[in-house]
């Protein structure tokens, strides 16, 4: 009986974490003139990758609300052409990032790239400026999210482009990992969204690099020491593993390989300022009503929490 009580307690903690705040990644396909996403399966996979981050990141982000003399302008390279584009009077809702995505023919062996967008502002309200640039992260000022002292990244969103000429594998069910040939679009989508969230790019990332290694506290704790980076200092070193698996945020992916985010990948997002929620307990709340049927499920919940 004692074991049952322990299981219940742990399970309740798990349920509480599954109701934590979550961010929304708003996917915008309006700059996809090459019709990379005309196939619904591709949209479904990309949105599943976004959904992973939506369940795991819990930051409270202030809205950007351009009005009157306070105007935020989003500046980015179009995903379909690479040409610089500006949207004046840009708005984004609280707890939400906008991702402009599309495809074009990328050079060489590049499968995709992604990153946060730029901006300009005209304003009369300093709180509009601070709130738009920091989105309420850090101490709510630009200095928390950009520059030499930045520690808590924020953005309005950004751009992700995928190569139209690569031999992709489009998985109609990303919930199952099977054998396949081709480059796994789901894994690459996870990787590029990570860059959009600042991995390898944010000042809060750059500020924690010492002698070619990333020294963020969560990452060091997960890895067992500073984590060596690639030459560009924007990925883990080639082949870096976590929990016995190659990380998603190293620089390459092989043909026929699926790479979920590892604990180290998520630790880096935490280190650059994201609030990483525990993995949701894979049991619907209604199951809790079914008395003795709970016992086996409790053990599963405890194991996941202990290893999280
Ligand atoms: Ca599958
Ligand atoms: Ca944050
Ligand atoms: Zn990358």
> What is the helix fraction of residues, given as a range?
25-40%
Name the poorly predicted regions.
Answer: 1-17, 286-308
Structural class: alpha/beta
The largest sheet, given as strand count, sense and whether it forms a barrel, is: 4 strands, mixed
**Strand composition percent:** 15-25%
* Quaternary class: single chain
Bound molecules: calcium ion, zinc ion
Separate helix tally: 9
How are the strands of the largest sheet arranged? 1-4-7-5
Mean pLDDT comes to 88
Please give the domain count. 1
Q: In angstroms, what is the radius of gyration? A: 20 Å
Question: Separation of termini?
Answer: 25 Å
Shape estimate: globular
Number of strands: 14
Order of helices and strands: HEHEEEEEHHEEEHHEEHEEEHH
Explain what this protein looks like in three dimensions.
The chain is α/β, with parallel strands linked by helices. It has one domain. It is 30% helix and 18% strand. The chain has nine helices and 14 strands. The protein has a four-stranded mixed sheet, with helices on one face. α1 (2-18) crosses α9, α2 (40-56) crosses α5 (185-196) and α7 (217-223) packs antiparallel against α8. The chain is globular and about 55 Å long. One calcium ion (CA) is lined by residues 59, 137, 152, 273-275.
Overview features:
single chain, alpha/beta, globular, disordered C terminus, binds calcium ion, binds zinc ion
